[in-house]
Amino acid sequence: MRLISLRRKYWILFLTLSLILPSALLRAEDAAPAQHPFTVSPSGEWMKLPLPLQGVLVSYGRKGTLATFHITERDLEAGKTLEALRWEDLFSPQFSSIDIHKKGDAVLAGEKAKYCIYTLKPGEFKDTMEGKIAGKYINYVLLHGGKLFSITFYDTEEGFSVDYPSFLTAIRTLRFDAPLASHVRKRS
Known about the structure:
It contains 4 helices and 9 strands, in the order αββββαββαββαβ. The protein has helices spanning 2-31, 87-90, 124-130, 160-171, and strands spanning 38-39, 46-48, 56-62, 68-75, 98-108, 111-120, 135-144, 147-156, 175-176. The strands form 2 sheets. A 7-stranded antiparallel sheet has the order 2-3-4-8-7-6-5. A two-stranded antiparallel sheet has the order 1-9. The radius of gyration is 20 Å and the shape is globular. Residues 1-33 and 180-188 have low confidence and may be disordered.
């Protein structure tokens, strides 16, 4: 009987800490926001996620779902245009693992963008990225201030069409800060 009571106390302690610690981390994160050349303001149905992936500036997850999106920034070769960017290069070295279903053009944050909707082909990369849950993705790329910004939305194949409208509403809040020059790194 005493063992059950002790286990129950540890279980309650575990649940309490798992509820308290994430909110403490979120408060700490809000107190010292990272500097990005943009803002994005998703609705309350999205929560900010920790940034475990290299190069990810901001990441959000939709509450109660597996839907996520993240925004990355990369340096761009001088003179490179959006039209000159190829999906083969953007997804390198894993392009052979990508099955693009649709490509198109869009406007985000007042900038021309292009997008593709894709899934991952069966194989080691898919197993590593998704495990047993099949996913579907949309990736938007746009150029701003000499940088390439990539916005990737992921959800399960079943949830994609349900959660995509909420994601689209969220990324339509994307705004780049002015002036541009303060966010462009000078090369020497």
